[in-house]
């Protein structure tokens, strides 16, 4: 086992090869035994030193210019299409590392190396990466991964290249800008991450209502990983981008991998689950770590509704006070079927807009016996290391379930318990508290976007 590992790195150990050649010439058993013992101890020593040194940055060249092309797409394939880089982030929460959020084939990607070019003297350092495939892969061959490299000292690299080998020519590798290098003060309190908009998304009315609710509740920023949407949605997104609320991250994952619209693998030849949602969520956390006090992780049809507080800020102040040391707050999902209408707020000018008018849907499904309601999260991004969809995988600090009397997730969609008669549903008009500002704001957006769309 140990021998096998060392052989893979043989080129790093010329002394060892020389010694083997010497040993091979001897005939007597005694000499052979001495040889074996000596080689074994050499192997042990070099194995230990390799273990210790392998992740340390190693200076390999000097006096070079950093000339590789700077990668400018959200998803960059490395040679062979087994590794995809989203973005590197500086992370000094434990030691100074560059952490690249990426997607890898869980078996085929065994070794990656970070190449750092340090200015002003053009020293090139190579560090062996630690490849950490997230545990929530759900059977798919590709999954979210952290590719973590120790940074060279006294360098503060601005860019990094990734290579399958510790040898080669750095000029031919794309360079990625390392984000979060400078600590910033928070520019916003709440950023909502919408992990994947896909399938010609056209639920325009519900999207606008969701956006306006997020803003009413305290979001200053909504980040959307956009795979694909309708022409009308493009107009609406453009409006919000110009307003400064929305940031679009292009997410062309299906031009690299066969994506599943399911979250778990169905043995159907797909490569990755749910349009790469988990990778997008992790990227969103790191992308907003330095600029947003909280990150809200939910889908476009979900709204975290506070019941005791008028907005997220007062709610989170209170939750943090009651849960010291907690960095992850989990909110329970509740289904409000889009097929059950209250008859209220049937606003005629909205009837031509594609999508659901959530104000009409205030009946929620009761809890089911033996079914745990899934949760979504508001997190302190600086305390999160890896996130999944309904919980975090690794974080500094605790997670806390937020009780139903403090907040719930209003989730308007197809019924899960479609057979239930209306009498079995629970009338819950929490959303209506916001009706007047919501209607006013939605009308403003519609008047600006739909007019343009008709032109
Ligand atoms: C990205 O880079 C390519 C060439 O490398 C260039 O053609 C393209 O316009 C760039 N795109 C953006 C958005 O900068
Ligand atoms: C990688 O994927 C691209 C398309 O995204 C394709 O053109 C190319 O042939 C693939 N390369 C390998 C080695 O599979
Ligand atoms: C969006 O995806 C659908 C299939 O899901 C496809 O039919 C449509 O052409 C795509 N639209 C754009 C603008 O790429
Ligand atoms: C809303 O009103 C229109 C007529 O203005 C009617 O056709 C439609 O059925 C109503 N929708 C609901 C859900 O009540
Ligand atoms: C709509 O909101 C106003 C206050 O903004 C409130 O007075 C009214 O009761 C709400 N409507 C409903 C049906 O809850």
Task: Describe the structure in your own words.
There is one protein chain. The chain is of the alpha+beta class. 25% of the residues lie in helices and 29% in strands. The longest helix has 25 residues, at 29-53. It folds into two domains: 60-177, Immunoglobulin-like; 188-448, Spore Coat Polysaccharide Biosynthesis Protein SpsA, Chain A. Helix 1 crosses helix 3 (29-53), helix 2 runs antiparallel to helix 3 (29-53) and helix 5 (231-243) crosses helix 8 (435-454). It is built from eight helices and 23 strands. The structure holds 2-acetamido-2-deoxy-beta-D-glucopyranose (5 copies). One 2-acetamido-2-deoxy-beta-D-glucopyranose is lined by residues 344, 429, 432, 435-436. Residues 341, 343, 346, 348, 360 line the site of one 2-acetamido-2-deoxy-beta-D-glucopyranose. Its main location: membrane.
């Amino acid at each position: 086992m140990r021998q096998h590992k060392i052989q893979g790195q043989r080129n790093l150990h010329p002394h060892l090869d020389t010694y083997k050649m010497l040993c091979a010439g001897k005939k007597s058993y005694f000499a052979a035994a001495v040889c074996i013992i000596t080689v074994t101890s050499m192997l042990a020593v070099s194995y230990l030193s390799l273990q210790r040194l392998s992740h340390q940055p190693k200076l390999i060249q000097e006096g070079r210019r950093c000339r590789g092309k700077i990668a400018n797409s959200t998803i960059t394939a490395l040679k062979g299409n087994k590794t995809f880089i989203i973005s590197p982030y500086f992370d000094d929460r434990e030691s100074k590392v560059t952490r690249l959020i990426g997607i890898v084939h869980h078996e085929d990607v065994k070794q990656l190396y970070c190449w750092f070019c340090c200015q002003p003297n053009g020293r090139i350092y190579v560090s062996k990466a630690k490849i950490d495939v997230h545990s929530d892969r759900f059977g798919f061959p590709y999954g979210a991964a952290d590719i973590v490299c120790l940074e060279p000292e006294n360098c503060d690299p601005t860019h990094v290249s990734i290579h399958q080998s510790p040898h080669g020519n750095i000029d031919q590798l794309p360079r990625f800008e390392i984000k979060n290098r400078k600590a910033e003060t928070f520019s916003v309190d709440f950023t909502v991450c919408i992990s994947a908009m896909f399938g010609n998304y056209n639920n325009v009315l519900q999207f606008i209502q969701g956006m306006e609710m997020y803003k009413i509740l305290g979001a200053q920023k909504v980040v959307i990983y956009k795979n694909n949407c309708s022409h009308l949605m493009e107009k609406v997104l453009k409006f919000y981008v110009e307003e400064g609320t929305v940031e679009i991250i292009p997410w062309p994952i299906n031009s690299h991998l066969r994506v599943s619209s399911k979250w778990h693998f169905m043995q159907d030849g797909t490569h990755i689950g749910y349009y790469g949602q988990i990778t997008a969520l992790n990227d969103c956390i790191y992308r907003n770590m330095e600029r947003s006090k909280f990150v809200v992780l939910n889908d476009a049809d979900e709204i975290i509704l506070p019941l005791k507080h008028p907005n997220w800020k007062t709610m989170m102040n209170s939750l943090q006070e009651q849960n010291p040391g907690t960095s992850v707050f989990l909110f329970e999902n509740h289904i409000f079927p889009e097929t059950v209408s209250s008859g209220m707020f049937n606003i005629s000018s909205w009837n031509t807009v594609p999508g659901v008018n959530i104000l009409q849907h205030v009946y929620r499904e009761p809890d089911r016996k033996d079914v745990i309601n899934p949760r979504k999260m508001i997190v302190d991004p600086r305390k999160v290391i890896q996130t999944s969809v309904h919980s975090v995988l690794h974080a500094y600090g605790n997670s806390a379930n937020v009780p139903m009397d403090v907040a719930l997730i209003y989730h308007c969609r197809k019924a899960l318990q479609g057979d239930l008669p209306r009498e079995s549903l629970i009338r819950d008009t929490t959303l209506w508290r916001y009706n007047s500002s919501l209607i006013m704001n939605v009308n403003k957006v519609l008047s600006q976007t739909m007019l343009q769309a008709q032109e």
